[in-house]
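Supplementary Note 2. Why include the ligand at all?

Several targets in our set were suspected to adopt different conformations when bound, so apo predictions alone were not considered sufficient. For every target with a known small-molecule partner we therefore ran a joint prediction. The input for magnesium ion is given below.
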Amino acid sequence: MGTRRRRVSVIRSRSKPVKWDDLRMEFISECTADTISNAAQALKDGHLVAFPTETVYGLGADATNERAVSRIYSVKGRPSDHPLIVHISSTNKLEDWATEIPDYAIKLAREFWPGPMTLILPRTELAKDFITGGQNNVGLRVPAQPIALALLQKFEEFGGQGVAAPSANRFGAVSPTSAEAVINELGNHFEKNDLVLDGSRCLVGIESTIIDCTKFSPKVIRPGALTEEMIENFLGDNFLDNKNLSEIRASGILEKHYAPKTKIIIGQTAKPGTGFIALADYPTPPGAIRLIAPNNSYEFAQNLYQAFREADRMKLSAVSVVLPTGNGIETAIRDRIIKSSKH
Ligand code: TXA
Ligand code: MG
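The joint prediction is reproduced in token form.
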């Protein structure tokens, strides 16, 4: 108990206080053991709790409570047949939600959880149609962010079994990487007892790597910070199935997704007065507005969505983005930028 209290109480938001007077939900910027306990109780009571993860902010609900989960869909404006990821506190909970788990999936879970990885596995009875969108598979993740983990542990202490959490944005829009962005996305859709936990900026900045583990070999169906190379280095070469297209549906795999209102153009030129996003070594075209100049690909991922939001806030007509090269996290960055450019 002592350890947990100490661990949680040092988690304080470093983000600036923000004014959102007309908001109905409560905004918690100091995540102490008490606030996390209240948030876990709010989840148990069927309310929504937006919380930070290392990838992006999630909009959480008790994954066994159909009414609470249905509110996720209405707050996001998401079609009800799109499945949700269930967040659990440790690999030990895997078998509550998943069955027929291949050895490679157990290995991946032991190696990369907590972390930015979601495994798609055959579901148990616990994963109802309202979580899986009627599919026989369920998506599971153990996040690495300390507030998220503390919340999940507390929720489970209170008898909860898992927290369904999509990214805390309106359907098709850019995932939030700060509590402020969550409020801007969903503030008008929350209800009185819903909560937003502020854990400052997300470390990774783009959504988790999703791995389809329902077949003989695993297949990455959404690239993320956990790269194919890392998976192959761990499981062995040629282990990944990167030939056949997965039949599994994932909304992030729709052609257009993650899109800001501002038009995203891929390329090195930018007209004066339009936005520009590229690694620091690319000079800003004359008259263009530099939104970010990350020093490496990790910084690129971390700040990309914030830059998209900034473009919207500035009401820019367009933003030109230079795609990073490389087959690590760059694959995921390119995936998100290309999708956001499909208007
Ligand atoms: O990093 C993340 O994964 C974040 C944080 C909050 O954990 N969550 C997230 O959730 O990105 P969401 O719902 O915005 O994107 C999850 C994707 C969706 O495209 C969904 O369709 C897919 O995962 N997915 C979830 N469960 C699935 C399942 N059983 N089968 C196939 N796809 C699934
Ligand atoms: Mg999403």
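Residues 1-24 have pLDDT under 50 and may be disordered. The first strand starts at residue 26 and ends at 28. Comparable summaries for the other entries are listed in the accompanying table.
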